[in-house]
Amino acid sequence: MRIRATLAATSVVLLALVAGGALLLVLLQQALVNDATSQTVSTARDLAGKYAGETVPGVPTLAKDLTHKGQEVQIVTSKDKVVAAAHEEYLEHSLVKTPAAPGQTVSYPAGSPHINAHEDDPVVTSVGFLSGGKAYAVNVMAEIDVQKQSVRTVGLYLLVGIPVLLLVVGWLTWLLVGRALHEVERIREQVDGVRRSRLSQRIDVPPTADEIARLATTMNAMLTRLEESDAAQRRFASDASHELRSPLATLNATLEIAIADETGDTWRDMQPVLLGQTGRMKSLVDDLLTLAKADDHQVHLRRTEQDLDDLIENEARAVGGGSSKQFVVRAEPIRVVCDGARIAQVLRNLLDNAERHANSRIWVSCRVEGGIATVDVDNDGPAVPRADRTRIFERFVRLDDSRSRDSGSSGLGLAIAAEFVTAHGGTIVATESPQGYCRFRFTLPVDDAP
Q1: What's CA 55's distance to the chain center, in Å?
Q2: What DSSP designation does 193 have?
Q3: Which long-range contacts (CB under 8 A, 24 or more apart) does 219-222 make?
Q4: Which residue spans traverse the membrane (predicted)?
């Protein structure tokens, strides 16, 4: 990668320098030629203005006036007859094939066919004027060898300077990329050294506040998530195996006793125990499957319009039918868009939990305010301690472990309720009623479209 980055940077710089150098030479030559042409125009116009309206004097005076550094000047008649010139070699023929008419200014670029043959490629300007009633023209020629030489000199400097600049760019790119990749390689080595048994290890973040530092920070955040996920997985496996061990042990002991009884009477006596323990195992497996689907975002909600008050009354009747405790329902009519089966399971889990921990009475109420339906499930047992009101919705959490286990609770009911309520866009909390009793409250949006 270091070599590729250096070659890419050098290639881009090379293309930019070649294109820029070529453009510079073209513009420089054009500017120098334009400057030479402007000077010929200025000289021709000055002389034409000097002799316009007067009689062209004799040759000696003309020769003196026509001497201009770096330029050749001649005055010709309209018939291309040279009247005067700065040097004798230019007395023989006109610099241009067609002199300018009076009042006209014509500039011919280098290589123009209107310029008479010349060993170099000069630029010529012709300005016409009248003197003594006769038509004349001032022809001014400037050779551009000096300009061409200047362009060649600049080109030579570029030819030497571009490779030197490329070497400097390549060297700097090699150093900078190497420095950046050194940090990346260091991060790679540290990440490679992280093992499952050492997920608490973190990457050293360089104090550069750049992309490399952000990469290290991101890697640390990823390691934190992996550590939390690994801890949750270990805890989940430990809790699940612990939960399954109890019914399996009961089933094993029951089967050993039944097998030892040759009369077969024990099989009939143990049937309720066997059915109860297998039912407990089935319930636990179902709860684990539900949470696994929630973890993979595979809980699909079938939203339809539901009467929330009817769901509350039905679940309260089902849970309270086999309970010795009193259930009080105060639910105002509320229609919500939700998955009826999922919300019914939320209510059932909350009511089961309330029934296990109530002293004698459970209250269920619901109301709607500001497009939000609020359901309160209260029981006259002690409120959940403040320190445990968030933790209680975690999996396999029991605040009263022995009593919950004896009652058949897996410690997953509240976790499932939280998952379903969150999937509906609602909230669920553990709090306390004004009387200081235990309260679980969840909310649902009323107008949530399916």
Answers
A1: 82
A2: T
A3: 219/187, 219/191
A4: 154-177
* Share above pLDDT 90 across residues of the chain, in percent, rounded to a whole number: 27
Residue 189 to residue 210: CA distance in whole angstroms: 20
Which residue type occupies 16?
Answer: A
The CA distances from residue 9 to 165, 221, 232, 324, 341, in Å, are: 12, 33, 47, 82, 62
Tracing tokens 């679980």 back to the chain, one arrives at 440
- What residues contact 29, with CB distance under 8 A and at least 6 apart? 147, 148, 151
- Look-up: residue for tokens 């000069």? 122
At 1, is the pLDDT very low, low, confident or very high (cuts 50, 70, 90)? low
Q: Which two tokens stand for residue 407?
A: 């009652």
| Burial profile 346-362: b = 16 or more Cβ within 10 angstroms, e = fewer | bbbbbbbbbbbbbeeeb
Q: Is pLDDT above 60 for 450?
A: no
Contact of 111 with 105, CB cutoff 8 Å: no
- Which residue do the tokens 């294109």 mark? 19
Sorted by where each starts, the structural domains of the chain and their CATH numbers stand as 2-147 (3.30.450), 211-289 (1.10.287), 304-445 (3.30.565.10)
